DNA sequence: AGCATCTATATGCATATAACATATAGAGGA
DNA sequence: TCCTCTATATGTTATATGCATATAGATGCT
């Protein structure tokens, strides 16, 4: 199953925060999932949902990002015909994709520091315990 | 001065991470700076730079976001004429803006948890010390 | 006076992204 | 036949972003 042991399906509304979407973040997440094991898009959708990804994932987002990452050379795909159900495209991580994960990790860590700096400052100013309203 | 005591002017390149931009994050940052004290756009640009915001800030980004936040009712502006230099627009946080900060904080915390979950998983898989390559 | 520079605000435009809807299609069941 | 589930893919529209550029007062230099 999913190894996101520390993700507890956050509930939140982004009302009042238009545009701060971070959807491209789905790319490193999918790369990491594919590092765990090859998969097809539909399976990735399910695994992303179980990994704290916001409620319903738009299939369009998943497949378009898979295409883009294949163009980048981070993943490779092959049709899996036969068996049962419609044909599926099985995605595998490439060595370049594994490198990309490291690049993303640096970037993600940087962004996380920025968010943390904001929150530290926020809490310094307001010193409340809104974190427990979950 | 700037109270971002825990921000050490991160250096990084976002090569290989196209689209993960998070520029809207400038909004809550500016709101928090305006909570500290009223300011005009040019001053905010400088204070943002001192607060770990990426190198050179595009003035367009700053002023456009100020306009949008004024439309939202989060900030209010008045022309400061006279004294020296060209006229400047002095921005003040409104009560709605202070509420917005709390909303943003929830959202930002949520996003930070997502990033943290990714990084935890990443480190679980790779167990390296890339954090020290700084 | 003429000119560059700094402060300060603002807009234009091409492209990238996001949100949402919709299309296509095989397989299995009622 | 029709519906649903699995599975992939595209179109449309609105918004966001990156980068360049416009405007303009004040100041200092030659």
Write the layout of secondary structure elements.
The structure is a homodimer of 134-residue chains.
Chain A: H1 26-36, E1 39-40, H2 41-50, H3 59-72, E2 75-80, E3 88-93, H4 95-126
Antiparallel strand pairs in A: 1-3, 2-3
Chain A binds a DNA duplex (30 and 30 nucleotides) through residues 18-19, 21, 23-24, 40-42, 45, 58-64, 66-67, 84-89.
What does this structure look like?
- Two copies of one chain form a homodimer.
- Chain A is mainly α.
- Chain A has a single domain, classed as Orthogonal Bundle (Arc Repressor Mutant, subunit A).
- Helix content of chain A is 50%, strand content 10%.
- Chain A contains four helices and three strands; from the N terminus they run H-E-H-H-E-E-H.
- The first copy, chain A, has helices at residues 26-36, 41-50, 59-72, 95-126, and strands spanning 39-40, 75-80, 88-93.
- Chain A has a three-stranded antiparallel beta sheet.
- In chain A, helix 1 (26-36) packs across helix 4 and helix 2 (41-50) packs across helix 3.
- Chain A starts with 25 loop residues before the first helix and ends in an 8-residue tail after the last helix.
- In chain A, 31% of the residues are buried.
- The model of chain A is unreliable at 1-14 and 130-134 (pLDDT under 50).
- Chain A binds a DNA duplex (30 and 30 nucleotides) through helix 2 and helix 3.
